[in-house]
Design the sequence.
């Protein structure tokens, strides 16, 4: 099973739910913290649109573009600029992708963690999310 990039989405694809991250002070914006992640995850179309943006296979909304900009920083800093809600939603998105969309997860991992650097770094976090 793919492990690590669990934090990739922790900073990243969770923004499928509240995308549009903008740096403000030391945290990402909380503007999208109240978006209903469950509703987005129930829509294959919405998930695919964000996925296509993140893997450069389709256009990005302004929110998707901001998300793409935030992923590298979030991976490097262990999502230090994420709010608690963003972390919770990210974990939900990650679990969903690993369990229900493993082919998407594999492509995201290949794109954002091609050397497995973050897989190794976030192994423990992945195991916690998986349980």
Sequence:
């Amino acid at each position: 099973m793919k492990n690590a990039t669990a934090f990739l989405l922790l900073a990243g694809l969770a923004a499928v739910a509240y995308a549009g991250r903008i740096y403000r002070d030391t945290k990402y914006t909380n503007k999208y913290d109240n978006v209903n992640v469950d509703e987005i995850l129930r829509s294959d179309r919405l998930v695919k649109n964000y996925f296509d943006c993140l893997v450069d296979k389709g256009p990005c909304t302004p929110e998707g573009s901001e998300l793409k900009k935030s992923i590298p920083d979030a991976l490097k800093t262990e999502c230090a600029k994420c709010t608690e809600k963003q972390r919770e939603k990210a974990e939900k998105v990650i679990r969903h992708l690993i369990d229900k969309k493993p082919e998407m997860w594999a492509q995201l991992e290949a794109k954002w963690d091609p050397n497995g650097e973050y897989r190794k770094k976030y192994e423990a976090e992945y195991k916690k999310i998986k349980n």
User: Anything to note?
Assistant: Confidence is low (pLDDT under 50) at residues 1-11, 15-24. The beta strands are 23-24, 27-28. The chain has one domain: 6-130. The chain has nine helices and two strands.
